[in-house]
Amino acid sequence: MKRPDSEELCRQLVRLAMDAEDRAGIAGVLEAADGAVWESALRTLVHHGMLPLIAHRLREESLESLAPPHLVAGLRKSHRNTLLRNQRYASCLAGVVALLREQGIEPMLWKGIVVMDRAWPDEGARIVGDLDLFIEPDEMAAAAETLVGAGFCELPKFRESSGTYVNPEGISVDLQYKGNGHGKWASDPSVLKSVTQSYSPKYIPVSNLTSLEPAAIFAGLACHLARHDSDGSSQGIHLRWLMDLHYIMRRWGKAFDTERIVFLVDTNLGLALLMRALGFFCGEMGVRYEGCEPMLNLAEHFKPYSFAEILRSRRLGVWSLPTAEYGWLYFFAHCLGLRRKSGLAVPPLSDFTGILPDQMRKWGMTRRAATLRVRASATAYPGPNSKKSGKR
Questions:
Q1: How far apart are CA 297 and CA 290, in angstroms?
Q2: pLDDT, tens digit, for every residue of 97-109?
Q3: 87-211 has which fold?
Q4: Distance (Å, whole) CA 335 – CA 373
C-alpha cells in the first residue's frame, strides 16, 4: 500500500472512532503510515479534542500495535488524564446539583458532560470543558450566592443572563438562563416544558438529573455548533462536537421524527450544518444508521462537508478566523512579530484561498435549508434522485 499522508491517516483514525465499516482498509492505512505521518496526524487531531477517543478505539479494536510505541504511550496518557478529569468534573457536578437542590433550584443540563454521560462509549473518551447549568432568571441570585458560599470564585460578567464560577481545583461552572440555550426549546417555554425529562446518569454520582430529550439535545447541539462556526467566536468545526451528533444519532436516531428535528433546529444555519454533517458521516466516513432513512433522505438535498473542509475550518478557527475581526488582527500581529501566539501553526495558503468557496457553500446550503424547511413532512423525504422527489 502507498504510504498515506497526514490527512489520510487523520481520516482513517476518525473513521475508526466512528465505528465505520471497512476495518481491514482502516488497519491497512494505519499500518502503512510511518512515525512522522502519525505525529503530524495526532498534532492535527489534538486541536479537535480527539486523542482520548482515538486511544480508546485503538485499544478496543486491538490496533495499538499499528501505531509507533512512543505515541501509543502518549495516547494512553491522554485517555487516562481525560478519564480522571471527567471523574473530577462529575463529582463536582453532583455536589453543585445537591447544593442547588437544597435551595429549591433544579438545574437543567443538556450538553458537554451530559452528552458524554448519555451517548459516548467511554467515560474517558470525550474531554469535558466547563459545566453548563441552565436555570430560571429569578433563580440566578440565589444560585450565585450558593456557589460563592461553597468556595467558588465569581469571574467578571459579560452579560446579566449568565455567570461563570471557578472552584479551587479550576473547575468552571457556567450558570445560564434557560433562554440562553440553542434550538426552538430555548426561545419557547412551552416547547422547553415538553422536551424536558429526568434521567439516571451512568458516570455522574447522582441518582437523577434534569436534561432534555435526545431529539432536543441533538437539535440544540446543531444550532450550538453552527453558531461557533459563524459568529464572532469563529472557532471552526470541531470533530469532537461532530462526534456528539454522531453518537446521539447512532443511539437514538431510529426513534427520531424528522419533522420534529426540523422544528427543534430553529435556525437555517443549524439545519444546514446538521444535514451536511449527516451527509459527511454516511458518505466520506462510511457510517451506517439503520432505520434513519427519512432524515438521511433529507440530508441528500445538501452538499456534505468534506474532511478537508472540516480540517481547514479548524485550522483557521484556532486563530478565530475567518469571521471574528479580532482574529485577523491577532493573526497579522503574529505574522509581523508584534504579538506571538505560541503553539499555533500558521495555516497554509490554500486554507485562505478556500475561505470564499467555503463561505459561499455555507450560504447556499443555508438558503436550501430555508427552502426545504417549509416542505418538512413527518412521513418521508424522497431523495433528490428518486421519482417521488420531482425537481428541487
A1: 13
A2: 999 999 999 999 9
A3: Beta Polymerase; domain 2 (3.30.460)
A4: 43
